Amino acid sequence: MSANWDDLKPRLLSAVVMLVIGGVEVWLGGAPFAVLVVALTGGMMWELARMTAGPSHPMSLGLGVLAAGMLALNLWSPAAWPLVGLLVPAVAGVLTPRSNRRLFFGYALVIMASGLSLVILREKIGLAPVLWLIAAVVMSDVMGYFAGRLLGGPKFWPAISPKKTWSGTVAGWIGAAAVGLGFWKAGIGGADLLWASPLVAFSGQMGDIAESAIKRRSGVKDSSNLIPGHGGLLDRFDALAFAAILTAVLHLFVPLFPLVKG
Fold first, then answer.
1. pTM value surpassing 0.90
2. CA nearest 221: which of 230, 5, 4?
3. Helix (H) / strand (E) containing 17
4. Which tens digit of pLDDT belongs to each residue from 171-189?
């Protein structure tokens, strides 16, 4: 087997496990899904803190716990916990020594906003938007992975992500558009999914690019080694984070799922 495919087996096995666990939690919604999102938020903040301050920095784990706690407070506090509380982990991280404070602050906000966006989409709008979001991001990733390795060609942004090609990027848009078409034809969403799906896929690809930039500046290959074949949580969920925020924003202006209630 070519070296290009050496990571395929562990990548597929890890993907199956994540899809099963994530699928059950998304289907259940409510507290089980929110708990999963809170845990992922804390884990991603821990990885970001490690990358920007070194793996042995004593505050990294604390920032992860703080991120999970602030999101949980925002979701479950009986009081009207202000959204400004989601800024706390980003501010706390900036006040500790790290290689790039502005980069940490910006991406920390993305992590917190993505966690909140996912829970809002599931609880306020319903199951369908989350299923579509995950399907579009996964299809974009899968199509990009195989097209990039089979077709190759010019690099999309070689200075930041040397493995990402234009062929894989465009294939990801096509795959996401196919997901949108499928949801529309199945009567699960509106025709706006045809243009929103590749847009969400592109947002996810930019999330991948942003995380690659952080890793290059930090001099690390993966955000951590938690997931075999994928690296860390940020390596796997960077695209979903950006895509979730865009999806939540789109729902403020466009009824992507006008036929779906609950």
1. no
2. 230
3. helix 8-28
4. 999 999 999 999 999 999 9
